[in-house]
């Protein structure tokens, strides 16, 4: 994860400077792409209930564009669904992904600061990293891992686009 820290983590000022709706737009793209990338290389690593919850949540958030603000009752329902998923038998690397979803829900329901975007980017990369790396991971293995490289490239592109 040092590679992410060196390339994306240092862009925290850019991420924190985004408007709340821009932060939510970036977050939804990154999380959807991360989940799709992991499913493509390790389809059984994401439990069905986790995948369904994340897919549904991201779809609802995307439907709220361009404001990216959910009605309070929708937010309460999604947070309740998140608690139910977390109460289930959660295995594998899905914890960071669900942390990212929780942070996104804070942005779109409670108007939390866009500085949560860096946490979302980090947790999504951690999800991808953990799900696709052989253990023990090495810096070299991280650099040649296609899924990790693509996630860093995507995050860089989106930050370049939204911060310029």
Write structural notes for this entry:
This protein has 164 residues and is mainly alpha-helical. The protein has one domain. It is built from 9 helices and no strands.
Overview features:
164 residues; mainly alpha; 9 helices
Inertia-based shape = globular
Mean pLDDT value: 91
Number of strands: 0
Number of distinct helices? 9
Secondary structure class reads mainly alpha
Number of domains: 1
Helix/strand order, N-terminal first:
HHHHHHHHH
Q: Helix fraction?
A: over 70%
How far apart are the first and last residues' alpha carbons, in Å? 26 Å
Largest sheet: none
Structural Rg: 15 Å
Please state roughly what percent of the residues sit in beta strands, choosing from under 5%, 5-15%, 15-25%, 25-35%, 35-45% or over 45%: under 5%
Uncertain spans: none
Summarize this structure briefly.
The chain has 164 residues and is mostly helical. It is 76% helix and 0% strand.
Question: What is the fold's blueprint, element by element?
Answer:
Blueprint: H1 2-7, H2 12-17, H3 20-41, H4 48-63, H5 72-87, H6 94-110, H7 116-132, H8 139-144, H9 146-163
Helix pairs in contact: 3-4, 3-6, 3-7, 3-9, 4-5, 4-6, 5-6, 6-7, 7-9
């Amino acid at each position: 994860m040092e590679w992410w820290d060196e390339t994306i983590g240092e862009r925290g000022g850019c991420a924190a400077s985004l408007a709340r709706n821009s932060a939510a737009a970036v977050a939804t793209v990154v999380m959807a792409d991360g989940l799709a990338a992991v499913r493509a290389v390790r389809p059984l690593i994401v439990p069905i209930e986790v995948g369904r919850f994340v897919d549904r949540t991201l779809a609802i958030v995307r439907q709220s564009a361009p404001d990216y603000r959910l009605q309070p009752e929708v937010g309460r329902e999604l947070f309740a669904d998140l608690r139910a998923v977390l109460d289930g038998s959660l295995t594998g690397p899905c914890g960071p992904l669900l942390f990212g979803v929780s942070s996104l829900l804070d942005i779109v329901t409670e108007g939390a600061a866009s500085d949560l975007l860096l946490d979302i980017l980090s947790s999504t990369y951690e999800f991808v990293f953990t799900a696709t790396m052989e253990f023990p991971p090495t810096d070299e293995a991280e650099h040649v891992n296609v899924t990790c490289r693509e996630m860093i490239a995507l995050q860089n592109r989106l930050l370049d686009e939204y911060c310029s």
